[in-house]
């Protein structure tokens, strides 16, 4: 089986690595990278075969940086998956909960565990670039009063002890990840998908009803829109790009008709990919 070098942002043990495993299984040879933009750059330069990035979380909302990168880099979305985010309090063996005075993690993770910090007011929240990276750092430094918030996989990978499991405020905490590939590359799904999803980005004229008319291209053909996201259009203050997800495959007749209709109304549009809808 040929391995696919698959990049993600963060350290080994990050939730993005779990997403890569869900999407590619044993085919994934994971490549941790420091920043999201490094992931996109590595993909377009051929240093990796695929990439996995988060695009939205059910509690924190959209990852705006990655929506911007989807426009700025010539990549395609080839799949998606949802990962249940379980935050654990992890410390070096021998460190007890009552010893903890400082907890490190990504700022989003810290903000998703506010009830834990409210019930432990002596513990200071300290931001770090990544959840798994914070676990690795705490284990490397072995401070007697420090812990990290991260995944169970990160705890096992770096030898950490889980002091408290699932300390997130809301158990319905999921992150949606997408699989990115180079435009000319194809990844055949393991099984024939029952449902396909298509993502695109477009702009409209800044006139009354322009967005309504653009969206009608899909509504008139009974295409179910599952997400719309607006981002500022650089160089044109108070004008916006719109990212749209809908159920359907790019080569379906009604989807092609909708895209032709959109092309008549939009200043610009680009399909970002058609891919099997994630569970």
Walk me through this protein's architecture.
It is a single chain. The protein is α/β, with parallel strands linked by helices. The protein has 3 domains: 4-84 and 173-181, D-Maltodextrin-Binding Protein, domain 2; 88-164, 3-Layer(aba) Sandwich (D-Maltodextrin-Binding Protein, domain 2), CATH 3.40.190.10; 196-276, ACT domain (Alpha-Beta Plaits), CATH 3.30.70.260. Helix content is 29%, strand content 34%. It has 9 helices and 15 strands. A hairpin with a 3-residue loop joins strand 3 (50-57) and strand 4 (61-62). The two termini are 25 Å apart.
Q: Number of helical runs?
A: 9
In the CATH hierarchy, what is the class of the largest domain?
Alpha Beta
N- to C-terminal distance = 25 Å
Name the CATH superfamily assignment of the largest domain: Periplasmic binding protein-like II
What is the strand content? 25-35%
Note poorly predicted spans.
none
Structural class: alpha/beta
Sheet with most strands = 6 strands, mixed
Classify the oligomer: single chain
Shape: elongated
Q: Mean pLDDT score, rounded?
A: 94
Which topology of the largest domain does CATH recognise?
D-Maltodextrin-Binding Protein, domain 2
From the coordinates shown, what is the CATH architecture of the largest domain?
A: 3-Layer(aba) Sandwich
Rg over CA atoms, rounded to whole Å, is 21 Å
Say how many strands there are.
15
Order of helices and strands: EHEHEEHEEEHHEHEHEEEHEEHE
DSSP helix fraction: 25-40%
Task: Tally the structural domains.
Answer: 3
């Amino acid at each position: 089986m040929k391995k696919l070098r698959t990049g993600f942002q963060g350290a080994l043990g990050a939730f993005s690595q779990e997403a890569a495993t869900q999407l590619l299984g044993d085919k994934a040879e994971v490549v941790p990278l420091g920043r999201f933009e490094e992931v996109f750059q590595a993909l377009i330069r051929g240093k990796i075969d695929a990439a996995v990035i988060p695009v939205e979380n059910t509690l924190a909302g959209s990852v705006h940086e990655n929506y911007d990168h989807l426009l700025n880099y010539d990549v395609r979305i080839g799949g998606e998956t949802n990962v249940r985010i379980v935050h654990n309090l992890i410390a070096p063996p021998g460190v007890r909960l009552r010893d903890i005075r400082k907890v490190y993690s990504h700022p989003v993770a810290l903000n998703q565990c506010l009830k834990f910090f409210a019930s432990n007011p002596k513990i200071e929240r300290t931001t770090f670039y990544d959840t798994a990276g914070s676990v690795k750092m705490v284990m490397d430094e072995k401070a007697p009063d420090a812990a990290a918030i991260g995944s169970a996989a990160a705890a096992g990978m770096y030898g950490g002890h889980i002091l408290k499991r699932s300390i997130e405020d809301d158990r319905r905490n999921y992150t949606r990840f997408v699989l990115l590939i180079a435009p000319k590359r194809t990844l055949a799904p393991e099984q024939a998908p029952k449902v396909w999803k298509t993502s695109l980005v477009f702009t409209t004229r800044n006139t009354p009803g322009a967005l309504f008319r653009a969206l009608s291209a899909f509504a008139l053909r009974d295409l179910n829109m599952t997400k719309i996201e607006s981002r500022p259009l650089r160089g044109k203050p108070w004008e916006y790009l719109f990212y749209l997800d809908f159920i359907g495959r790019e080569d379906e007749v009604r989807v092609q008709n909708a895209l032709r209709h959109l092309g008549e109304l939009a200043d610009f549009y680009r399909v970002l990919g058609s891919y099997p809808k994630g569970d």
